[in-house]
Each structure stands twice: as C-alpha cells, then as structure tokens.
Amino acid sequence: CAALIAGAVREPLIALCPDGRVKAASAAFCKMFALAPQESQGRPFFEIDGGQWNHPPLRHMIETVLPSTGEFHDFHFERELPAVGPRLLAINARRLPDVDSTGDIILLAMEDITARHDTDIEIARQRQWFATTLSSIGDAVIATDIDARVTFLNPTAERLTRWTKREAIGLPLAEVFNIVNEDTRKLVESPVSKAIRMGNIVGLANHTVLIAKDG
C-alpha cells in the first residue's frame, strides 16, 4: 500500500513504518534530496540523508504529536538541499492503516515553500513601509477596502475626524468621514464610493464640511 501511494504521487513523499523505518519514498522525494531508493529503504528515517532529518522539533511532531492527533499540517523546516542550498519546507503528515500489514503507515509530504515565504516577507516589508510612510506625512490619509470600510487612518486623519484608528477600522467610511454641504447640511456622497463606482479619481465639491466624531 505504501509503495503504491509513493509511486502514484508526483510530490516529494515518504512512507514510514510505525517504528520509524522508511517503507517507501516517491521518485520526487529521491530527486529532491538526491537519494537513491536503496539509500533509504528500511533504514530509520532520522538516520537517512546524513541525519539531516534528525531535527528535534520535527522528531517531536512525528513521535509525540502525530500518534495522538493522527496528522499535522504545515510544519516548517529549513534544511540544505543538494546543489540548491538552504530551503524552507512545509511538511504535512498523516497516519493511515496499511492494508499490507497489521500496523499503520506514516505519510510525510513535503513542499518547498522558500519562494512563497520570501514573497510573503517582502509583501509584509512593503506594507510596513507603506503604513510608516502614510503615518508620517502631514496630510490626513484614510484608506478603505473595496467595500468602503476603513482599513487605515494616519495620525492627522485621527485628529481631524476625532476617530482613533482602533475605533475606525472596519467601519463604513461614511461613519468616520462624515461630510455634508456647508450651506444645506445635506449629506455629501462619499468620494470613495463614487471612485469605486466610476473607477476614477474623484474630488470633493467646494463648501464641503467634515463633521468630526464629537460633532
């Protein structure tokens, strides 16, 4: 059963016996870690590949967490790959009954998430830079999502609207940015709603007044 599963998948996958010995490994696993099938077959998992899998947190997940939960997901593990260098792997594991024996098999599937992880870090860095920039400029800035709900206020906007960022985030913009005509006191359509609807840059008409939270 384990050999059939390992042979059928294209992803790096290894099947272990209950005692932790390797029962089967997929071709993608052998290719990723530059191992011949005979180098791992029947050997303790934590001893193969020069002992690189003998990582205490991973060992704890396999030997302690997996027997009680039956599975775990997205365990991140950094290790060296041949001719590639350090890579970040996401490991998913599951215990399954093995129809060929009386014990269970342990399936470990791996994915190289280095590029995705680096992209996430870069996006987070850019978001932090963007938020810091908007917080530092002297103009009042309010940002919303596509449903015109507040996602950001800088300090100047907080002072003008009398709303704190913590209070305002998630609220409809019209509640925070409450604008009326100076003469008639009628509500003025939110420029954000108009910009979303028209797909254009929208300015405010003259004689528009902002009513702060405190009136």
Give a concise summary.
The chain is 36% helix and 26% strand. The protein has helices at residues 2-8, 27-32, 37-40, 56-69, 114-136, 155-161, 165-168, 173-176, 191-198; strands at 13-16, 22-25, 71-81, 85-97, 104-112, 142-144, 150-153, 178-181, 208-211.
What attributes characterize this protein structure?
215 residues; alpha+beta; five-stranded antiparallel sheet; two-stranded antiparallel sheet; elongated
Whole-angstrom Rg: 28 Å
Assembly category? single chain
The beta-strand count equals: 9
The shape, in one word, is: elongated
End-to-end separation = 72 Å
Major beta-sheet overview: 5 strands, antiparallel
Contiguous runs where pLDDT drops below 50 for at least 5 residues:
none
* N to C succession of SSEs: HEEHHHEEEHEEHHHEHE
How confident is the prediction overall: mean pLDDT? 84
The structural class is alpha+beta
